[in-house]
Specification:
Shape: globular
CATH class of the largest domain: Alpha Beta
CATH architecture of the largest domain: 3-Layer(aba) Sandwich
CATH topology of the largest domain: Rossmann fold
Amino acid sequence: MTIHVPDDYPAVLRPSAAWPDLAARADVVYHDTLPGSEDALIDRIREAEVVLNVRSSVRFTERVFEACRKLRIISIWGTGTDHVDLAAAGRRGIVVRNTPGVSAISIAEHTLTLLLAVARRIPQLDAETRAGGWPRGRSVQLYGKTCGIIGLGAIGRQFARLATGIGMKVIAWTMHPKPGDPIVALDELYRTSDVISMHLRLSPETTGFIGAREFGLMKPSAILVNTARGAIVDEAAMLDALATNRIVGAGLDVFTVEPLPTGHPLTTLSNVVITPHCAGITPEALEAGLRMAVENACS
């Protein structure tokens, strides 16, 4: 078997413990740079039957599938599949496999970290204290507050467990509820939640899921946390809500354009805590996900 890896940059697969297993089970056509364009991706995988995809910035479009007629499996490191035209893949009998659940604990922990950093104003207090100040009394206590979770997949459920653990009341909206889930209508969630945490997959149905109308329903004291995908939230509407104090703050690990461009307006707002789409990248989650991606490619 030959497996093509077109996009291991920055390298995570080659240095991992999963690499020897992959190399022992298959011949690997390996690239440690991003393709940079659709044409370059086609050049790299034109003869491929199996592709192990590392980076979600590499897009598998209908044109790519049309040019790569031998392709039959795409194994994705990660949960998101929004960079793959799933309908086009299905029409050509291409199987798309991802690694669901392996990063759920890591992402849930990071979500809680962002929430606490915003509520307790940790970056600002750290900066002011380092500068010689001694700021007081600017934090928000989360115990007893309402946490509205949008999307109760593996990550959303892990975060619900953590939010409950610090004494928050959890309510939720999800596309596929289970018996016993604390489900409320979306508008009620927006109106009553002190914290709103996004855990939806990005799809045509969820792009721009939260926009100006939804921000208008939120409490002025609300905190938004997004560790799902940037495009789920209308960025212009979010910037306006944050700049005008329509909501109190946001913790963001994902953005509409990544990496976040230098000088982006979000970098100027003191009520925003940002991290570089790293919520699911801990050694434990990374190795588990890469091992599953290798297994998905080889089986």
